[in-house]
Amino acid sequence: MTSSSDRSLAVDVPAPKSYEIRTYGCQMNVHDSERLSGLLEDAGYVRAPEGSDGDADVVVFNTCAVRENADNRLYGNLGRLAPRKASRPGMQIAVGGCLAQKDRDTIVKKAPWVDVVFGTHNIGKLPVLLERARVQEEAQVEIAESLEAFPSTLPTRRESAYAAWVSISVGCNNTCTFCIVPALRGKEKDRRTGDILAEIEALVGEGVSEITLLGQNVNAYGSDIGDREAFSKLLRACGTIEGLERVRFTSPHPRDFTDDVIAAMAETPNVMPQLHMPLQSGSDTVLKAMRRSYRQERYLKIIENVRAAIPHAAITTDIIVGFPGETEEDFEETLHVVREARFAQAFTFQYSKRPGTPAATMENQIPKAVVQARYERLVALQEEISWEENKKQVGRTLELMVAEGEGRKDGTTHRLSGRAADNRLVHFTKPEQEVRPGDVVTVDITYAAPHHLLAEGQVLDVRRTRAGDAWEKRTAEKAAKPAGVMLGLPSVGVPAPLPVATGGGCASD
Fold first, then answer.
1. In angstroms, rounded to a whole number, what is the distance separating the alpha carbons of residues 397 and 446?
2. CA Rg, the chain, in Å?
3. Exposure string for 370-387, b = 16+ CB within 10 A, e = fewer
4. Per-residue pLDDT tens for 197-220?
5. At what angle do helices 230-238 and 259-267 cross, to 10 degrees?
6. H or E stretch at 246
């Protein structure tokens, strides 16, 4: 006779639902996607294997509204998923992020097979909205007009075991005429410094050794709490956290970039000699039309002061080409700043209209052919400067934090890749000793290309780190994760093994 306990061993719990998140846009969206992953896993979902390409129970699009073709890209991807959803009962599709905040009901009208639309202020509602859509069998559109909970209070599934984003503020108080982000993310709201430092300390306790402070206008931190030096104080406070080896931040605004921040960068050993400082245009006329509250002279003075305090700093930027009314003389002013500033890298964008922004209705929109020609001239100049600046690194001995997935050809070249303190990408010869992502190696730079460096000789030193230990632990845990769960007694035997933004951020910075 079979007992009830024996029968329970034969009943399988339904396999947990899988999810896939597709992220577009800036670092803020990348970090929000980590939160969305954490929320879904906290609700019992499991991440779909890499390369599933829509073959998941829930597919989430975390969208960007900055670029001109953002809408077309989203609706094209949604259209490709429609037949798959029709043939897969129970599959759900959700759309969030800036484009969802902007388009709202339009998404469901254009793609009625979408189940959930949520905004930038209520990402924490995603699991509830998915369940409500399933039970009610109709699309759920919920767009909050103001922040419901600071994103860092939500569960998180970090993409990296050794490096992490830490959000210090959300929203933006600027009114740049080309940018729709403030309208979608809202006014700036700062986190309490104690909460930020507590999160960093917790991350370091888990093995993270590099953090990037994140904000739409990161160095305006403190405006919400009435302390103009709050950001420099935060950088110095990060310097007191034992085990935190590298601190970075993105993206600052020239208007708010003050001398106390430069001093904090120079005097805090774990703040890296790297700065991403958006220029957008070198022309005072265009900067005024963009409603950027600085001019060429002020911008170049910041660069000069940073280099005086931190001689080896690598400075990167964002530049928009073809803003309405930009003349050839205006464009030449941009080229002048690029020559003077000698950026390590520039993220260049061709101006694109965004409905709802003042620039979209400005007169003297520049013909596409003119914009393209200027863009190509700018890219050629910056490539030349990037290469010249990288050549200055040849012969230097650098410490690299070993990275995961940064070198696309590492497998065929028998190299590994890592980031120098100034964030330059370095490919180096794989040593005989085991090296893990998060570990630190010392190498001599032997060759420079415009976008990377090579260290072709032997690795001089390998330092195993707690960050490397954390990566190894996470990798082992993923490999040991069981494929399913049985009711009753646990199964016997070894479970079958189971199988990462710069970009320069959005052009709103």
1. 10
2. 24
3. ebeebbeebeeebeebbe
4. 999 999 999 999 999 998 888 999
5. 0
6. strand 246-250
What six digits make up the tokens of 366?
């520049």
What are the φ and ψ backbone dihedral angles of 123, each rounded to 5 degrees?
-65, -25
Q: Residue 134: helix, strand or coil by DSSP?
A: helix
> Is the pLDDT confidence value at 447 over 60?
yes
Coil, helix or strand for 214?
strand
Lowest mean pLDDT among 28-32, 51-55, 137-141, 219-223: 51-55
Q: What is the pLDDT of residue 146?
A: 64
Q: How far apart are the first and last CA of the chain?
A: 71
- pLDDT value of position 398: 98
Pick the closest to residue 20 from 50, 44, 43 (CA basis): 50
For residues 314 and 423, the answer to whether their CB atoms sit within 8 Å is yes
Three-class secondary structure assignment of 151-171: HHHCCCCCCCCCEEEEECEEC
Element (H, E) at 260: helix 259-267
Instruction: Read off the amino acid at residue 248.
Output: R
Place of tokens 């964002």: 318
User: pLDDT value at position 12?
Assistant: 55
Within 10 A of 291 (CB to CB), how many other CB atoms are there? 14
Q: Compute the distance between CA of residue 179 and CA of residue 336 in angstroms, rounded to an integer.
A: 24
- Please give the structure tokens belonging to residue 111: 């793609």
Q: What is the C-alpha separation between 18 and 22, in angstroms, rounded?
A: 14
335-338, long-range: CB < 8 A, 24+ apart: 335/282, 335/377, 335/378, 335/381, 336/282, 336/296, 337/279, 337/282, 337/296, 337/299, 337/300, 338/282, 338/378, 338/381, 338/382, 338/385
For the cut 90, the answer to whether the pLDDT of residue 399 exceeds it is yes
Between CA 203 and CA 302 the distance in angstroms is 32
CA 29 and chain centroid, separation: 6
Backbone phi and psi for residue 366, each to the nearest 5 degrees, phi listed first: -85, 135
Beta strands in 396-501 (DSSP E): 397-402, 415-420, 425-429, 440-444, 447-448, 453-455, 461-463
Q: How far is Cα 32 from Cα 35, in angstroms, rounded to an integer?
A: 5
Rounding to the nearest 10 degrees, give the CA dihedral for residues 98, 103, 105, 108. Answer: -80
Q: Does position 386 have pLDDT exceeding 80, yes or no?
A: yes
Across the range 381-390, mean pLDDT stands at: 97
Looking at the predicted structure, is the pLDDT value of residue 387 above 80?
A: yes
> pLDDT per residue over 260-279, tens digit each?
999 999 999 999 999 999 99
Q: What angle do CA 338, 386, 260 make, to 5 degrees?
A: 60
CA–CA dist 365, 135 (Å, integer): 49
Q: Please count the residues of the chain.
A: 509
